[in-house]
Amino acid sequence: GDSVTQTEGLVTLTEGLPVMLNCTYQTIYSNPFLFWYVQHLNESPRLLLKSFTDNKRTEHQGFHATLHKSSSSFHLQKSSAQLSDSALYYCALYQGGRALIFGTGTTVSVSP
Amino acid sequence: NSKVIQTPRYLVKGQGQKAKMRCIPEKGHPVVFWYQQNKNNEFKFLINFQNQEVLQQIDMTEKRFSAECPSNSPCSLEIQSSEAGDSALYLCASSPPGYEQYFGPGTRLTVL
Predict the structure, then answer these.
(1) How many A-B residue pairs are in contact by the CB < 8 A criterion?
(2) Domains and CATH numbers, chain B
(3) What is the rounded CA–CA span in Å between residue A75 and residue A64?
């Protein structure tokens, strides 16, 4: 069945350094829709990025990601992490008009 | 920012008690989803509706879970006889005519 894999469970870094979170997916659909959601402590997930166009970079709030269908990837990047970026990040696959398939999530912890 | 409204924000029940939570989707969003996020931050899709009709649902945990989305009333999710394992964050999301889903703040259920 469809699935999303996030390889990092925890990413710790110092403020100002770049961050990259990996996301790969498996789906039977030829036109997948991929999303990144961010969930801060005691909050609900908030949509960060979305994409359904192959090889097109999408950006929001300093984060960017590019959907690569050839490698089934949608990695999240930011050039300079901020303290406020500390949160849980989920990659999610839109499953043919129905429920989101979430990855296991990556906790990002940014320290001064 | 999401305009999905969920009430109550916190719900405490004893085992065997009914637990009911409500969701008002964002205006103009015809599709509503319910997810359960457990203490390990794992997501479980429960059910979704489009214009009051069920689109997809899991086997609702021995039928203890029920949900509806009547016209002109909030959507609701009810657990007939709460169990300790039901303690979780219940998230309602709504979707515009598109693919992204926007989450409400959630109802955190604690079953004692």
Answers:
(1) 46
(2) 5-111 (2.60.40.10)
(3) 8
